[in-house]
Description:
One of its GO terms (molecular function) is hydrolase activity, hydrolyzing O-glycosyl compounds. It contains 15 helices and 30 strands. The protein is of the alpha+beta class. Strands 6-7-8-11-19-17-16-15 form an eight-stranded antiparallel β-sheet, covered by helices on one side. A hairpin with a 3-residue loop joins strand 15 and strand 16. Helix 3 packs antiparallel against helix 15 (571-588) and helix 14 (533-543) packs antiparallel against helix 15 (571-588). It starts with 7 loop residues before the first strand and ends in a 6-residue tail after the last helix.
Amino acid sequence: MSKHTYDTGIIGNCAFLAHINKNTNVDWLCWPRFDSTFIFGGLLDKDKGGEFSIRPEGEYTTNQHYLENTNILITEICPASGGKYRITDFAPRFYQHQRYYKPLMLIRKIEVIEGSPRIIVKCAPVSEYGAVKLSVNRGSNHIQYLGGEENIRLTTNIPISYVFDGQAFVLNETKYLAMTYGEPLEAPLISTADRFLAETVQYWRTWIKHSSIATYFQPFVIRSALALKIHQYEDTGAIIAASTTSLPESPGSGRNWDYRYCWLRDTYYVITALNHIGHFEEMEKYFGYVTDITFSEMERYQPLYGITGKKDLVEHILTDLAGYMGNQPVRIGNQASEHIQNDIYGQVLISLLPLYTDHRFVFSERKDSVHWVEFLLSKIEHTIDEKDAGIWEFRNMANIHCYSNLFQWAGASAAEKMARTIQNQELIDKAISLKERAAAHIESCYDPVRKVYTNSAGSSNLDASTLQLIMMNYLDPNSQKAKDHLVALEKELKTPNGLFYRYLYTDDFGKPKTTFLICAFWYVEALAAVGRLDDAQREFGNLLQYSNHLLLFSEDVDERDGSQWGNFPQAYSHVGLMNAAYRIAMKLDRPIFL
């Protein structure tokens, strides 16, 4: 088999995300929210997923790139019969009337580059994950699609009959397609689309200019930051793992998950990445999302929540969809929401720490401080001796996991700092006591013969998540113990080409067949942390080959041929890249002219 990569780019405006294929089709678009039914779902079923394409007659080649420092996608098409044209796809986003304008609107601008190409525009949105075909009504300058939750309208200056009938026509002037959900576009099409495009370009370029991004592999970090930004559902502040569902971790594996949700276990890494690039607005919105969950969650946290904090994410299988490249099942919802993961409370405590230690936040933002710290510490206290599913969400295996106890240790450490800030001795004492208990569990995972920490107490299995013992400074990065631990992990879990397995033991679905990309970026961070800076730079540069043509990364990579697998793009892979690049840049600490 040839190397598999995902041939799509993403556009978005923090209200929705769309995947645009190099072949011009909108392969994936969920409306009105990230976790809604798809309107276009060709990723999972080319027949039932609908279509929105702008293709020439006959054979053609394409080239796709982003408009520099934006989330605006350019696709250039060269028909074999001659001519050339360009499609600019974007989701409007800009500041007006003292708020961000981010409508449920997809705009496609079609421009002639040379010649007189003949093109065919096809538009057939669906609803209920392809189970409902929408009825089509034509107007004078628009087509209306009815039968879903809300009306969808396509407004265009292309003759309606050509779009309605899927008929080829000569492209001899700039054409526009504006698809809206619910509220139609009532303003003039051409001038509005061009103004929205100019405003959106300005928004994204200003956002990047206001980012603190070091020069180390800067184009990759910029693209990762832009990708992460549009994975935030701005209405609530939630950041999703990916905009897709059921893209397999490896062909035929059955590991096809719905990732359109917010995992609290990744909170620390996401907040760290946003902090590194200096984007406080996104951090504050995310704080607000976590706060809302905390005050509504009186018992235990779930590992993941819906983008509105919804708890009920019942997993079910859509049997009528073919699946990506025939891979089934297609899952909606995620059973991992029912799992026990005890690292979460520490994740949240660490994530809230900047409110207490970073003086760019004002004191009034530390609401209900005693209640916060007390509540989360009590969660750690009640779960610190409990077996859980661990970071990788084993469905039928529970252990005292080293990683879970590491974040309980780190969370208690953060709570101690918070308690000192608010001068509460009782909470200080409780935090110190819990740190000691968590450390005892972590040490029960140490194998003195191999000089490595295993994945759980009483186990001999190694796990990439224990790399975090070094980055979280549980192990002094300068110590021999940290260096020995890293050597043992890389000996067993690193591939010859620099990728990293999560683990190599059998789980509920057998042995993993692909590597987990964020683990490779963790490995790079660990190398930098222990002072192996040359190794860190070499391994980091090597990992960049596993992006697609737009510098977008998947969740998993097949170490045999470098193929991309898993949900795409994976926000946390980009977070891993951002954090690894930052750590190396800080270690290098040299003048820009050298």
